[in-house]
């Protein structure tokens, strides 16, 4: 008998998702970034979700998608403006199952629909390999401050495929 592959669902972020999405953010950082960042750096990063209402409001202002497995949220991603991926976080229990791929596929299509020719991301050292695999190219290394800590990331950019010109139907 074949193994059933769970279907990844995608839906827009709702204000009621703030708590679950903040929890995914925390667990994703704690569970997946330990090879690249120290515990102090992880805690400084996590502090961005200390004020859950502000964190949720920030996501609500962006184009944020929630990924689900069997209807439960397991990841989220947000597009700031037309052409910048601001957040991408997957719960460790759902990592390696294509959740981030589904989120990025959708954000890239939405960005193209908003008229973006390229998409940028400040990729964490943990996510760098994921984005490189998707065709994002390094632009510059940066060090950002979070509380008393400094965290490195890489500005990466991908050129989006041009939409075919709209012409008269032959
Ligand atoms: C990076 C992250 C989003 C990837 O999520 P994911 O759902 O596990 O990724 P997917 O399952 O869609 O992976 C797709 C492909 O990328 C590869 N991949 C995933 N994470 C990778 C990594 N850190 N380095 C290199 N390749 C990676 C997978 O092996 C897979 O390859 P395959 O298609 O050949 O099997 C997840 O590890 C995460 O949330 N990290 C912590 C938070 C973080 O750093 N967010 C980024 C902020 S910019």
Explained architecture:
- The chain has five helices and seven strands, in the order E-H-H-H-E-E-E-H-E-H-E-E.
- It has a domain at 8-115: Gcn5-related N-acetyltransferase (GNAT) (Aminopeptidase).
- The protein has 170 residues and is α+β, with helices and mostly antiparallel strands.
- Helix 1 (18-32) runs antiparallel to helix 2 (39-46) and helix 1 packs across helix 3 (52-61).
- The protein has helices spanning 18-32, 39-46, 52-61, 99-113, 128-133; strands spanning 8-12, 63-69, 72-80, 84-90, 118-124, 137-146, 149-159.
- The chain has a seven-stranded mixed beta sheet.
- 29% of the residues are buried.
- It binds coenzyme A (COA).
- Coenzyme A binds at residues 28-29, 32-33, 88-90, 95-101, 121, 123-124, 126-127, 129-130, 133.
- The site of coenzyme A has 22 residues, from helix 1, strand 4, helix 4, strand 5 and helix 5.
Helix and strand layout, with pairings?
Layout: E1 8-12, H1 18-32, H2 39-46, H3 52-61, E2 63-69, E3 72-80, E4 84-90, H4 99-113, E5 118-124, H5 128-133, E6 137-146, E7 149-159
Parallel strand pairs: 4-5
Antiparallel strand pairs: 1-2, 2-3, 3-4, 5-7, 6-7
This protein binds coenzyme A.
């Amino acid at each position: 008998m074949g193994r059933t592959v769970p279907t990844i669902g995608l839906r827009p972020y709702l204000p009621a998702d703030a708590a679950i999405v903040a929890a995914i953010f925390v667990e994703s950082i704690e569970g997946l970034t330990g090879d690249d960042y120290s515990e102090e750096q992880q805690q400084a990063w996590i502090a961005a979700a200390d004020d859950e209402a502000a964190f949720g409001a920030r996501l609500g202002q962006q184009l944020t998608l929630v990924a689900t497995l069997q209807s439960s949220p397991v990841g989220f991603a947000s597009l700031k403006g037309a052409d910048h991926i601001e957040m991408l976080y997957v719960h460790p229990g759902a990592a390696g199952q294509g959740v981030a791929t589904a989120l990025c596929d959708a954000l890239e299509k939405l960005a193209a629909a908003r008229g973006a020719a390229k998409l940028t991301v400040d990729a964490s050292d943990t996510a760098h390999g994921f984005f490189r695999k998707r065709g994002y190219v390094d632009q510059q290394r940066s060090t950002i401050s979070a509380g008393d800590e400094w965290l490195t990331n890489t500005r990466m950019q991908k050129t989006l495929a041009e939409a075919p010109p709209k012409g008269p139907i032959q």
